[in-house]
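Slide 14.
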Amino acid sequence: MKAFSLRPYLSPPALRRRLSTSRHYAVQAPVAPTLQVFNRHTKYLQKERAAADVETSRKTDYLKDEVANRLCERLLDISQHFPHVLDLGANSCNIAKALTNPPPTSLDPTAPRAAPLTTRFSQLTAADSSPTILHRDASLPFNNFLPITRDTLTDEEDLPYEANTFDAVLSSLSLHWINNLPALLAQINRVLKPDTPFIAAMFGGDTLYELRSSLQLADFDRRGGVSPHVSPLADVRDIGGLLQKAGFKMLTVDVDDIIVDYPTTFALMTDLQAMGEGNAVLGRELGGMRREVLAANEAIYREMYGNDDGSLPATFRVIYMIGWKEGAGQPEPLARGSGAANLKDILEGGGGIKENN
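Slide 15: predicted structure.
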């Protein structure tokens, strides 16, 4: 696939998709955690500091903007109006901005041009624990196309909304910092009205595997041990079970790998800080990494994963999920054994349609 520019610092930058791999690293358990994994106050401070530098923060929104666009594309498959929608963990309102983009052109030249997604929204509540990042772009033109209420939360893990409040809940690149993801999914299900969707995107377990591996090797080589520099993430295999346990129906889960090429590991880590995506694991080492570890990491990363043009690829694995709150009139799966066709016969070319007596 031809590379296209999303990152202004690279020459030329690249953002491309790649098929899933079989690597697996530390993941969050699919049950309520007995220990806190992330320091939520540290994450709040990281996002506040990142958003305070408005210019740099906007330049490094390329990944959040791209994922928000891909998430909003999934709304095109749902032909209904949404009177009141919650954007949970809204960051700088990347979803609201994506909703104002022109819809993709139809492959059928005779088909009428689709209306912008904003015409299907009456009210959007954008909620985040960081007021600085939430209000960073409040003066930009996209706010004129959609009624947006910005709501500063004490913590995204505790939703202050009444049951059956929203006609949809969206979330883009925020859920990976939640300690008790099963409990939050249950809360999301509670605040949704019956037969309404929850659509989200979050970083998954293989995200930044290149940086994780090289830092572990550099730590071990220079210090004789390993420290957690990259946060643990949920695995795609757990997401379906978590959604089902929270009460969602008609589940859809898929994975998309986005690869961004950087000139150096220092540029990668600088951008992560500017995104507010720095390490917030409890028990992490305070202060910066040692120079010898950073130098070794650069050499190891380049040797193991470097591109032929000298750039360094960084993989961001994004897990997309859709679940519907149970409601009257929803499609239900047929009872086991009620199918009219035998799949084995079809695969073997024999047809095999049952006859009902």
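Speaker note: The longest strand covers residues 248-262.
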